[in-house]
From TrEMBL:
It is an enzyme of class 3 (hydrolase). Keywords: Glycosidase, Hydrolase. Residues 559-605 form the Glycoside hydrolase family 65 C-terminal domain. GO terms for biological process: carbohydrate metabolic process. Its EC number is 3.2.1.107. This is Protein-glucosylgalactosylhydroxylysine glucosidase. Belongs to the glycosyl hydrolase 65 family. PANTHER family: GLYCOSYL HYDROLASE-RELATED, PROTEIN-GLUCOSYLGALACTOSYLHYDROXYLYSINE GLUCOSIDASE. One of its GO terms (cellular component) is cytosol. Coiled coil: none annotated. InterPro entries: 6-hairpin_glycosidase_sf, 6hp_glycosidase-like_sf, Glyco_hydro_65_C, Glyco_hydro_65_M. Catalyzes the hydrolysis of glucose from the disaccharide unit linked to hydroxylysine residues of collagen and collagen-like proteins. It catalyses: (5R)-5-O-[alpha-D-glucosyl-(1->2)-beta-D-galactosyl]-5-hydroxy-L-lysyl-[collagen] + H2O = (5R)-5-O-(beta-D-galactosyl)-5-hydroxy-L-lysyl-[collagen] + D-glucose.
């Protein structure tokens, strides 16, 4: 970083946002809060029945703020360091510098820490006192709380949730130890410095770099700790663990946002964490079976909104009944994981095949034969565009159902399980609406061009579905839906238009779409809001996930296919170098360095265990094959190609 250049990984300001929803969050995979907020949340701890289920509010001992009344020439700085996940508040006066730090530990995930340090100025000699405001109220609308005996100077509080998600279901108990915070701390005259701890158990435009740093920090903070496969991961909600109490940020429920918008970014860097996300869906499969049964279908239907059990907890019945594409979204995450890792153990031994089979059976039971059109229809659904409901043959839903069935058949073959004939037959005969005259995909049967659309829908056919179509049709879909998609809709929408234009090498059009995302990013802490007018969920991880995909899959052209990881770079003019380090593919770790003229790939790690087939890079135009050996780099003029096992067939 050049001298005087602002560090894109540190977000700082002299005053806090007036809207407390936009304050920085400190979270790990187990607990989280917003700074200066009186509640925190613990993963998987929900209160309320069915549609009233929400994250349980727990009193937060980490809600501490230091003040120095009467100080002359006082200045303040607030900062979030996304490298360490630490929020800092620094007070500077004539006699001292005081620093308060708050962080959620990422190894000891049950721990949240607050520290206060006072450092005396060189000529100051008098005692220095700081007041600590810690308005801790030991009550909760969601838990039956009780004080227990103190333990080694720490206070103890415990209690279980009041109402289970389903009748007879679990009511988790929370146990919390914390060091009491005194009303003030004093640096005595003889002391120069002292710290108090309070514990609770790429080169490019600076704006882009800050946005990427912020999105990575908030998304990665939601992941389970690496190296702990037994950690009970409970999914990722749109507003993260710091939000989701009753009436806010979708109550902490898990949506398709996790599987479609956030998951792909995690998969390419942290396949172990990606597996934990899939295991959450496997653990809640019993609820998905019940959802399908209650609606009169076979197999498993994943809920539009999920909490602890996998049963539908959406407060509004229409979404749970009609927005069924979520079931295909879940399976697409399993497919992406399978093709990236070839982890057959997940499917053979750990419940993956049961889920795949159940989803395939659900889709077969959900479609019906239309004698007039001589094909299968899926009727009465709500597509991702939630402005329309009770429609027939949503193009996104049907294309996803077809993909689900093909994937289920592929896995069955790999596992030497007989493939039911109806899976392939119904996939091939399922209607996917297409207007041959206009050469574009109508959103559903009866859609008229020009009707307003809430969010990315048909454009998702091109990515992430990679539904087969010509460049002309891809362009027509983008040009049809871009002008009718509402400008202030959910934040992830424009990233998918950007990916589409990058795919067609329309770099400036892509950049104009990606620029729209910045209206959803608030200063100073890079907190995303769901809608550009400030409404909806805050700390909106879904928008961040879409934004990260625009860079990770858009600029690089990465595509996960059955036999390879494809690349086809297209970077805007103001990005002169893109480096993507630590990409995981088939157990290997790879670094990519991309400029407009040259591309370099290096394998930094090979998979442990028995020697696997080595990787190679294959260039699409020439067919040139470049062996990829650990510790060595290959370079070539920037072009499309793929990474594959040297024993596989490319393209």
């Amino acid at each position: 970083m050049a001298d005087g250049e602002e560090d894109p990984a540190v977000f700082s300001c002299a005053s806090l946002p007036a809207d407390p929803r936009l304050l920085a969050t400190v979270t790990n995979a187990y607990l989280g809060t917003r700074v200066y907020r009186d509640v925190l949340h613990v993963i998987g701890v929900y209160n309320g029945a069915a549609g009233d289920t929400h994250r349980a509010d727990i009193p937060s001992p980490a809600n501490v703020r230091m003040v120095k009344p009467g100080a002359d020439e006082l200045s303040e700085t607030f900062a979030l360091d996304t490298r360490t996940g630490t929020f800092s508040h620094v007070l500077r006066s004539a006699d001292c510098t005081a620093t308060q730090q708050i962080y959620a530990h990422h190894s000891l995930v049950h721990l949240m820490a607050v520290s206060v340090t006072i450092q005396r100025a060189a000529r100051a000699t008098q005692p220095i006192e700081l007041q600590l405001q810690a308005p801790l109220a030991l009550k909760s609308p969601d838990l039956d709380l009780h004080r227990g005996p103190d333990f080694q100077g720490a206070h103890y509080l415990y209690g279980k949730t009041l109402v289970p998600e389903v009748e007879g279901g679990p009511q988790p108990t929370v146990h919390m130890l914390w060091t009491p915070v005194p009303p003030a701390v004093t640096l005595r005259a003889a002391e120069r410095e002292r710290t108090w701890h309070f514990l609770t158990a790429l080169r490019g435009p600076p704006r882009l770099r800050r946005a990427l740093r912020g999105a990575l920090y908030y998304v990665l903070s939601a992941l389970p700790p690496l190296g702990e496969p037994a950690f009970p991961f409970r999914g990722i909600s749109p507003g993260g663990l710091s939000n989701g109490g009753q009436g806010e940020d979708y109550w902490g429920h898990v949506f398709w946002d996790q599987d479609t918008w956030i998951f792909p970014n995690i998969l390419l860097f942290y396949p172990e964490a990606a597996r934990a996300i899939l295991e959450y869906r496997i653990r809640t499969l019993g609820g998905a079976f019940r959802n399908a049964q209650e609606q009169g279908y076979e197999g498993a239907k994943f809920p539009w909104e999920s909490a602890a059990t996998g049963q539908e907890v959406c407060p509004e019945e229409i979404y749970g009944a009609q927005e069924i594409h979520v079931t295909g979204d879940v399976l697409m995450a399993f497919e992406q994981y399978y093709h990236t890792t070839q982890d057959q153990k997940l499917f053979r031994e750990d419940g993956g095949w049961t889920l795949v089979d159940a989803v395939a059976r659900y889709w077969c039971s959900r479609m019906e034969w239309d004698e007039q059109e001589r094909c299968y229809h899926i009727k009465g659904v709500m597509p991702p565009d939630e402005y329309h409901y009770q429609v027939d043959n949503s193009v996104y839903t049907n294309a996803l159902a077809r993909r689900s069935l093909y994937f289920a058949a592929d896995v069955a073959r790999d596992l030497s399980i007989p493939v039911p004939e109806e899976w392939v037959e119904r996939a091939e005969q399922l209607k996917v609406p297409f207007d041959a005259e206009r050469k574009y995909h109508p959103e559903y049967d009866g859609y008229s061009p020009g009707e307003p659309v809430k969010q990315a829908d048909v454009v998702l056919l091109g990515f992430p579905l990679m539904y087969p179509m010509s460049a002309e049709v891809r362009r027509n879909d983008l040009e049809t839906y871009e002008p009718v998609t509402v400008w202030d809709g959910p934040a992830m929408t424009w990233s998918m238009f950007a990916v589409g234009w990058l795919e067609l090498k329309e770099v400036q059009r892509a950049q104009s779409q990606l620029d729209k995302c910045f209206s959803n990013i608030t200063e100073p802490f890079q907190i995303w809001v769901e809608n550009s007018d400030g409404s909806g969920a805050v700390n909106f991880l879904t928008g961040m996930g879409g934004f990260l995909q625009a860079v990770l899959f858009g600029y690089t052209g990465f595509r996960i296919t059955k036999r390879s990881l494809r690349f086809d770079p297209a970077c805007p003019n103001d990005i002169d170098k893109l480096k993507v380090a630590g990409v995981s593919y088939m157990g290997n770790k790879l670094n990519f360095t991309i400029t407009k003229e040259k591309m370099k790939i290096k394998v930094t790690e090979r998979p442990p265990g028995p020697p696997a087939s080595p990787l190679e890079a294959v260039l699409e135009g020439s067919g040139q094959r470049l062996p990829l050996r650990e510790g060595q780099s290959v370079s070539f003029p920037t072009a499309a190609g793929c990474i594959r096992s040297s024993s596989a067939e490319a393209f």
